[in-house]
Amino acid sequence: MLPKIPPPHRDDVLLAVASVLTGLLLWSLGVHSTGYRHFLPDWAALVPLLVLGSLELVRRTLANLTLTVGTLGVIADQFTVGNLATVVIFTDLMYAAVVYGKPAMARRLPVGTGLFTVVVTVAALAWLRTPQALLIGIVAGIVSFAPALTGATLRNHREAAGAARLRAEQTALLAEMDRTQAVAGERARMARELHDMVANHLSAIAIHSTAALSIDSPATSREALGVIRENSVQGLAEMRRLIGLLRDAGAGQEAVAVPSLDGLDALVGQARTNGAASGLDFVLDDARTDGPAPPAPVELAAYRIVQESLTNALKHAAPGTVAVRVAHENDGMLLTVGVDSPYGERSGPRAPGSGAGLIGMRERTELLGGTFTAGPAGPVWRVRAVLPAEEKAVRE
Q1: Is the model's pTM score more than 0.70?
Q2: Phi, psi dihedrals of residue 383, rounded to the nearest 5°
Q3: What is the C-alpha to C-alpha distance for residues 115 and 69, in angstroms, rounded to an integer?
Q4: Phi and psi (nearest 5°) for 170?
Q5: pLDDT, tens only, 3-12
Q6: Which strand ranges, in their side-by-side order, compose the sheet holding 280-287?
Q7: Amino acid 32: pLDDT
Q8: What is the rounded (10 degree) CA torsion for 223, 226, 232, 238?
Q9: 217-226: average pLDDT
Q10: In whole angstroms, what is the distance from residue 109 CA to residue 370 CA?
């Protein structure tokens, strides 16, 4: 089955009509390009004209075919009285073959027509041996090489413009992908910060409010309300800190301190207060060696991992001692964080949990290129994170 040929372009129809009408006008006026030849009757010059004029209709869709037939037509025109319009139409078919034809033909035609022009010029000079023979070469160049070179130049410009447009679209797509990933990463970071900052205080509030409601003792209720108030105030302060981080730095917002490992004593002390009513005790073993402090992202990640582990212990740990240990390993190249919580059978958690805490701790660790493990180890639930304590640590 032959491929379906699309209808001719409107400009090609106008071009074909104008070319044929111009050729008919020249013929009717007796204007011929090779009037000294009388191999055929005068009307025979109209045949190549009509053939090449009709080829203008498919110059875009059948560029290779139109050039082949057009070449035969312009050669046939030389055996008649000739028509200047036929030659002009051929130059347009040569141009269209380069612009709309296959890439291989578009590359070969300028070279081939250039060589053809040189050969015709040299042959004319050798045959006629007069300077006027150069005119034959000039005409050959105007009819063949000039339109091929013009078409090649236009096609190269179009291809360059298309490639530039494609690169711009790809760049825009990559930029959009980077923006989407950046937004997703920032949302994940904000979710971790919000969870780690607020979950500890809300868990303590839930635990002590439950104790105040279940134990009918004024002293117990008063103690629980004190812990609830303290955690509410601290939770509000943490929320204000997060809001300060989200504000535009150019709006005059003062820098907000980022939690560091120096605040572990206070964090463990607060957990000790919150867990006293549940039979939990909290101890800290800070075995870090003297030396430069880890990068801020590493310190923040370590702090948040301890904070979330203490929150989980308040919710799920059996009565006993929760041990927190922070130390340097591998000559200070690594920072290890470990939290061991009593692990045993309980009727249920003291406060509801979603499991997002373990996910957040793992994400924090992996973003910095560290390793994270959490799970039961005999009588304890062990959380362990190993973080790179060097300047090249990945920043959040």
Answers
A1: no
A2: -115, 130
A3: 21
A4: -65, -40
A5: 577 788 899 8
A6: 280-287, 320-329, 334-342, 380-388, 371-377
A7: 82
A8: -100
A9: 71
A10: 62
The answer to whether residues 337 and 385 touch, using CB atoms and an 8 Å cutoff, is yes
CB 142 within 8 A of CB 116: no
Could you give the CA distance from residue 241 to residue 196 in angstroms, rounded to a whole number? 13
Q: How many CB atoms lie within 10 A of CB 129?
A: 8
Residue-wise pLDDT for 364-394, tens only, equals: 888 888 999 999 888 899 999 999 987 554 4
Q: Where in the chain do CATH 3.30.565.10 domains reside?
A: 260-396
Report the 3 state secondary structure along the chain: CCCCCCCCCHHHHHHHHHHHHHHHHHHHCCCCCCCCCCCCCHHHHHHHHHHHHHHHHHCCCCHHHHHHHHHHHHHHHCCCCCCHHHHHHHHHHHHHHHHHCCHHHHHHHHHHHHHHHHHHHHHHHHHHCCCCHHHHHHHHHHHHHHHHHHHHHHHHHHHHHHHHHHHHHHHHHHHHHHHHHHHHHHHHHHHHHHHHHHHHHHHHHHHHHHHHHHCCCHHHHHHHHHHHHHHHHHHHHHHHHHHHHHCCHHHCCCCCCCCCHHHHHHHHHHHHHHHHHHCEEEEEEEECCCCCCCCHHHHHHHHHHHHHHHHHHHHHCCCEEEEEEEEEECCCCEEEEEEEEECCCCCCCCCCCCCHHHHHHHHHHHHCCCEEEEEEECCEEEEEEEEECCCCCCCC
Return d(Cα 364, Cα 387) in angstroms, integer. Answer: 10
CATH of range 260-396; options 3.40.250.10, 3.30.530.20, 3.40.50.300, 3.30.565.10: 3.30.565.10
